[in-house]
Amino acid sequence: MLSLVTKDFAVITADVDERAAEIKMEEEGTPALKVSEHLAEIKAKAVFDSLSDEEKENSIVIGADTSVILGDVIYGKPEDREDAIRMLSSMCGKEHVVATGVALFAGSKKQVFTEETRVEFYQLDEFQKRLISDYCDSGSPYDKAGSYGIQDMGALLIKRIGGDYSNVVGLPVARLARELANLL
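The chain above was modelled as a monomer; its predicted structure follows.
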């Protein structure tokens, strides 16, 4: 997805204990819609801090984190099939928010933002239950926040979205391009 914004990039994984950071934010009462933004900033800062001074001056570090939020509850990656079915079923007939926090570090400049997309699942009828079961059998839900991906069979669960499709995939590329242009 990032290649839509730039062809010149490298992926560097941040050495951050995201779960510990989430627990700390939960204890501090951080609103669910801000958790991804804080995680993105922590990850981007960890990578930025690992760079040499010259690399810091000549690089842009982008950190991102996506959360699926129903009400004020963050749905992370499911623990198992039962958990995936519980999450997916609980979102049926309701609207939830997919929030992607993005942090940009460029030299002495920093920009942090959250993009929100509203997603509504179909009602939990027999067809939807079968789709959920088949989707869980595919193995796809187990590495995804909220147990679904809009870019795969999870799309069949969705009645409508309001906002940026690429944000639901995991990176709001249109907004990212604009924020980068403003930062530089």
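The chain has one domain: 2-183.
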